[in-house]
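Co-fold these.
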Amino acid sequence: MRRQLTVALVSLSLLGTVACNDFLTGNKLSSNPNQPSQASISQLFVAVQAGQFAMQEGTVPMMICMWAQQCGGTNGRFVEQAGRYVFGESSNIGANGGDWALVYDAGGLVDIRQVKADATAAGDSTWLGIAKVWEALAIGTASDMWGAIPYSEVTTSATPALDPRFAVLDSAESLLSQAIAELTNAAGAGPGSVDLVFGGDRAKWIKAAWTLKARYYLHTAESLGAPAYTNAITAALQGISDATGGSDLAGFHSGSGAGERNMWAAFQASSSFGQDIVAGKPLVDIMNARSDPRLPAYFCLNTAGAYVGQDFNVPVADVSAFGCNPSPLRFEDTYSMPYVSYAENELILAEAYNQTGDDVNGILHLNNARAYANATYPPTAGPPATAALPVLAGIVGAALLDSIMIEKYVAMFQNIETINDYRRTCIPALTVVTNNQGFANVPGRLFYPLIERNVNPNIPDPSAQLAPPSYFRNQGDVHACTLDTSP
Amino acid sequence: MRTRLRQLLLVVFGLALWPRWAAAQEPITLSGRVTTEAGAPLGYAEVVVSSLGLGAVTRDDGRYAIVIPGARAVVGQTIAVTARRLGYKAITAQVTLAPGIVEHDFTLAFNPLQLGEVVVTGAGTTTQTEKLGSVRNRVDPDLISRSGESNVVQTLAGKAPNVTVVQQSGDPGASSFINIRGVNSILGSNQPLIVVDGVPLDNSAFSTSNFNRLDDAGGTSIGGGGGFGQTEGTVVTNRAADLNPQDIESVEILKGPAASAIYGSVAASGVILITTKSGRAGPTRFTFRSSTSFNDINHQYPLQTAWSQGDFGVHADTAGGQCDAPNGFCRRSWGAAIPAGTPIYDHSSELYRVGHTVDNGFSVSGGNDRTTFYLSGGNVRDQGVFVGPNNFYSRTTVRAKATHSIIDNLKLGADLSFADTRAKYIQRGNNVNGVQLGALRTPPEFSNHPYLPEVAPGVFQHRSYLYQHPGATSALDDRGFDNPFFVIFEDLNQSNVGRVFGNVNAEYLPLPWLRINYTLGADYSADERLEGLPVSSSSFTDGRVVEGKIVNYQIDHNLTATANFTVNQNLGGTFTLGQNLDTRNNRQLGGVGRTLIAPVPFRLSNTVTRDLPLDNETVIHDASWFGQATIDFRDQLHLTGALRNDGSSTFGRTNLRSWFPKGSVAWEFTKATGQTSWLTYGKLRAAYGEAGVEPVPYLTSQNYVSDIVGGIAQGTGNTPTQNGIGGLTSSTVKAAAVLRPERTKELEAGIDIGFLRDRGDASITWYTKKSVDVILPQPLAPSTGYLSQGANAADIRNRGWEVSLNFRPVQEGDYGWDVGLQWAKNRNTVLSLGGEDFISIGDFNNQVAMVGKPIGVYLGSGFLRCGVSSDANVVDGAGTTLGQVCAGQPSGALFIAADGFPQQDPDVRIIQDPNYNWTGSVRSSFRFRRFQIAGLLDIRHGGQIWNGTRGALWSYGTHKDTEQRATCTGPNSTDCTGNDKTFGQGGWFDGPVAGPGAGTAVPIGENWYKFIAACPFIGIDEPCIEDGGFVKLREVSVGFTVDAPWVQRTIGFSSFELRVTGRNLKTWTNYTGYDPETNLGGAISSAAGAGGVDYFNNPQTRSFTFSVTLNH
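Predicted complex below.
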């Protein structure tokens, strides 16, 4: 018996010694069983679009909306930080790290570049061109908010240097030129229905690319003057010309499913902070003054049945919210938020012609934009009733520029381009919000996020970002309507 | 005559059990009595013949009997017989065997230092207390039993130096986090491995919110698993709570690698060795225990009662319907003064009642010299302090443990436990559906009753202070914040756990000097979670269901062989070889359903849409060998050396195995120098060991993921899949090329002394441990396309002292008094992060590991301060710099701008350190005959808390601090008058100030509390940092034992004990929130090193427990 037991126990112990390295490797041990290790170009491209939709509808445009006072606020961190300029490199409103990551990380440049590589390998210049337009929009938007950004070294350095803003804009122009050529070349089948914006329609992408080129030329105009306006005209004349808005480069939101909604709608419906952000007084006042037909599409009525905007300096009790039933068009789940649009294209032309002395064409394109507004947002009986915008005539020079920029201020509601326009023209005249930060002007840009500065020594400390000569303005921002406290 | 009869029966009994094939010769019975020096019989004393592998346990009358089989009973042979019992000094006698019955009695002396007691040192190895080269912390099971806690981890609070326990809140079932000697790891749990009867016990914690990735407001995690969801939702339980504390016989704490290296790559944070109760040979014993507790919150939140709902001094027009939608004007309590006579409602107490806990249990144990058994059952039901039926924790446990000696030298055993845990929790934390957020923000003049008024016949609608007059059609309108009673009564948050754990084991002694132990253990649990938000819940007005399951399955095989050797009387020792195989499988599968089809039930199948599910699995295999040798020289110098070789699937293919050594020396110097009247015993000891932390699985895999991208706030991100087309993004975690286990190297040294004839003892230990190759999500510049990469990049050091002092000034037969003091200090320093200054580890705030700082400090925003902030800061429109203003001013002076207020520093800095400066405890007990009173003070000094609740309530104007307020008509200070304060004076930010506005009195009202100081919303966190130190009267226990003959006669039991225990009766603290013992993310966050966060956490409780125990 004892011998039998000894044999049994020795056998048992030997069984244990089977634990050689085979026990430590294999399926679910050496590789992650939960996530795929390969992704197709289609899978990546859909995700890129999801990421860039999130970028164009995320915290940055919401913050811009408050800085430009198109949005007001009643409560919460979005208002008390964004509205009153209390923000920093690690603000918990998410306007820094999260949006910065959208530029570069998942759904951003890392995946756009993989799409480009896959498209190149497949000889699909259509797909390649579309990816380049997205890349140009991503880096251009990033540069709008952070000025100089890492770009040329993002794949070659663990600590990419900052490309100056104009270099980034040059890179964007170059990408767009390449994209136009590749889309024109029309090789490859392209993404087809995987392209949620245009369904792979090359012609629409080419026009959107031209409008985007025009936008970026304008971003240099404050500094470079007439040549920039001329370039903008040349580009915009080839830009989006579909007056129905059906060719706008816009977000696509298929329904009310979580994670696929217009993000401003999701913010209203699901974030618990939706009520904290409301209509802003300057925008509402402009639109009320002309019974703008877009009022019902932008705002809810207040409890008194009126459109009233919030004033950060003199708070108003009963203001227009963005969330009500039914929602304003702009806050509906499936609303396709325009990122690069016919209206913008027309107003770029209007401004550029005006600035190059051609007010005839300037007012023509301004009226085109107003006609688009009338067609897209038919007047309603109210109350309060709205009315079609009248055709303007006889306005020239600075007054015309004011009309153009006011129209653009209204038309580009919720679009990040609003802060670029304000920086360039100081129109409309905004009263700086009383703040505890010592800011005498509207901030012109964001701090670089802490998560980048921690690793990348090219990022200066926040106090240095505020210090002269930057003063929180971007290269090319000449006018002092945005933050400039320099002695 | 009676004794002889018993002896005869024992002989007959022994013969009857003796296998026929072994009964070749006559057996010899060794019997006798074990008593104290005073002559009192000692039950439960163990008498063993080590050389023959035989033993017995004394009965209540102190009698024992050991039958030595005839085959090994050599008449005339002298054998060593040892008698021992916990608390008494073991004694060994040489007994010469004679035919028949050999009588030998033992008299045991009191042993306050527990010298000679056998202690488990891990992985199948045991030794005696005096031979230990590392500090020994044993927790008396009586202390565990008396604590009145149902969570075994919480029972350890204040029981040992540098063993820190923090309970998430007072919710029934709330997790308790335990840490020993500081945080070693960044991705590891930082909690000790818990081993029950030789088998690892899962002590994980998982938040149901992790199934809900879209609405999850927390941060992100590395390595998958759903991220941190614990900052919203409900509290979570740590799974060690499935163990019934009443089943515990002993707890040994191996505090760090110097003691725990034998467990290798899972033991860097120490090991808690739990031995459960076993049966003893002798009469069958019955124990019945019943207790009932009454619990209430130990602190009410301070709220103002003078100011109404509204803004800028204007009362919100509630009658006009203005507050029938979540209007910002109605959101806060900055309205007009509440007119006299207006009813005021106490939102700090209306949610609570006296909670009630019933804990019943029994045990049956017994056996004979071949077979022992222990059976127990218990049920605890803790009805929490929130009103309503949805706040409870119930645990039913059954345990069966048995051993049987098949033959003399082979004993088989089984040890199985089943636990059924069911709990319902209350939503809390960073959560509009949380109870605290709605309750504490409610204006004082608003009644939260009725929360569900009947607005039309048979139609009931959710009513809240932001939605005061619901109508029949307002089900889908947003309420802003849920009415707290709606949260308590209508939400469903449940967890049902079935768990089986235990082992089968064998002990085989093939030779007198060789012992082989084998244990095959398993631990299986299935935890079913269900959360339901009904229709009209804020933000999720059409309802939401989260449903999921967590399955954990672990198998552990452990084989050891221990050889004893004795060269001569001056030299002996042991040698152990062992092997361990371990597999751990964890599966999480759950999803979110939105828009309820019918109002109930809360089921995924009853929802219109479903989010992408969380579907996560991890599998880990470990295979290890280990050896340990001990040498005892002249019975006073004890050397131990051990070496473990670990292989783990987490190490990666190129680096599958690692070595972990250990060595220790203990010298009982009083055996060389001799005892004196003042120094009874002395031991010097030193130990060194290395242990590790396994890498998080799959960090070496590069993958694509379907995680949410972007988002403005919770609920707003995009899924990579859009319009029915599947999408994937690159993981933001870049694959690591190779990973090694983290390695913690610990050196400890100390002295243990007994003095004044054992009236006192002391233990002093110094340790330093350096954790190298600590794996961290090494931050990558986001501009490279990745956020992090797993890397063995960090070094962390913990260094400290531990002191324990015990005095027994009065020790008489009928009465005694003892006092125990413990003090410990740990200094944690991050030495390196592989190039980065810091990495974020927090799930709510930006708590970081930062080079040169203790882990978990908060890198946040403060005010401009001289010598602290950059001198380059421009502080006015004239270009004046802070450096110019601060010239000649003391460092730390608060800069005051011309308007009389401080300004935000644009550069972040360390503003909070949640780590305690030191911890300690004072324990004392007094007994008089059968009456006993004992108490425990738990002391934590230092350690700051970010009180975001207070900051938010400042903003909302409901905090008591805001009762004194300036009258403001707008957001700016120029709009405010009254309640003037001067920074730096009169208790208002006392301390030096500098700047043009220094000394200027300014109004403090909505301008300050809402627009500057409201840390959770503004982001200037400095005003919200508070001292989190405390002294807590953790336990007071009064017991009385009755064992008079009438007890037996009247109720049939030999004795009963009555006990009253008070728990957490009083807390002395400067902390202004509910309780300084709190953390928003509970054990999950604390395990990452991120403690000290309070954001609408639930309160702590105090309790009185009345118990009766019947013994037979």
